[in-house]
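Problem 12. The chain below contains 425 residues. Write out its predicted structure in token notation.
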Amino acid sequence: MAYKAPRGTFDILPEDWPYWNFVISKARELSALYGYEEIETPIFESTNLFVRGVGEGTDIVEKEMYSFQDKGKADLTLRPEFTAGVMRAYVEHGMHTRPQPVKLFSLGPLFRYERPQAGRFREFHQFNVEAIGSQDPALDFEVMSLAWQFLEELGFRGLSFQVNSTGCPECRPKYVEALKEYYYAHYDEICEDDKRRLGRNPLRVLDCKNPQCQPIIAGAPKIADFLCDECAAHFATLRRYLDAAGRRYTVNHRLVRGLDYYTKTVFEVWAEGIGAQNAVCGGGRYDGLIEEIGGPPTPGVGFAVGLERVISTLRSQGVKVPEPPPPEVFVAALGKKARDKAVPLANELRQHHVPTLLSFGKRGLKGQLRNANRAGARFALILGDDEVAAGVVTIRDMESGKQEQVKQKEIFAWLEARAQPARGR
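Solution.
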């Protein structure tokens, strides 16, 4: 085979789609329940949108973006995350004039040049939620509740939140200075990546996975000790809502997430039984993002869930999902005259919204019925020379094997009388 899917990408095959449809349908169902509307943004945007929005010192911008110049010399990037593009659309289309908060969700592919490994791909898909226009911690709680209910109704168990506050532009700088002072005192003990992060994105040192840095992280200052009154009150109110709802959570002082735009609330949803990487969802508040990309000061909060990770977990845990309904009718034909009748008959059945398969080629009746059985068809409609001459169709019940002849003009009434309730006919 000369060609294969590019490294870090994969094909979603027909047998995979029951899982994908199940997860996507649940995302749309619960988004509607919470009052979120769907938005689709372009797969590529101005490179500078992500540099300014995501953060110049982040791994995404420095290492992972698929960027290129088009034929008009414009610098473009395949979207590595949804939020910056959704915020651009909010500003561009004057959505600040709508009732606030504006509540949006997206589903689709994203692109990052990462080392492919289990659960990590270069093309991947997310369910993304954004609530824009309010600083109310009740909105943080609503967004987090949508994430929780989505995972819970998919079948995930043992859910819990990891939560933290990353402060705001008023209080975060004092914490960053304290963090840098602490880390520079341990400079010879930390990894090279953390030495680089200290100068460009200091909060990211708290997210380091290198074993040699873990004792340093454990002794680092906690941002909770530096929060201003507003940020402290916001975080306390959010935790009060979580307590009232009985949502399990842990205040994780190391949780900072990987993007520069987060302020105040950051969170992850963890689930039991999915291996070492417990987080299946992450998000937080980004009150300064719209201003950073050139819009007016506008608060917002949201989350993203990786669909590949969700689907892989559902499959590994043996969660059953609805299968697509089988065809109701398989049309089998023997001979040219029968074929000339079978093709328009199959077409007419479909026009009446009867799920129908038509046999192709020159297989005998036994082979055609074998295909009907493999397809899971409920009935086989058999046309031969005798049926054509008599103006009838032989209908075979594929489960019982019983057959009867029905006049061609009465086929729809016959099927209607035996319609499956799920078809709603």
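Discussion. The radius of gyration is 28 Å. Students who got a different answer should revisit the alignment rule from Section 12.3.
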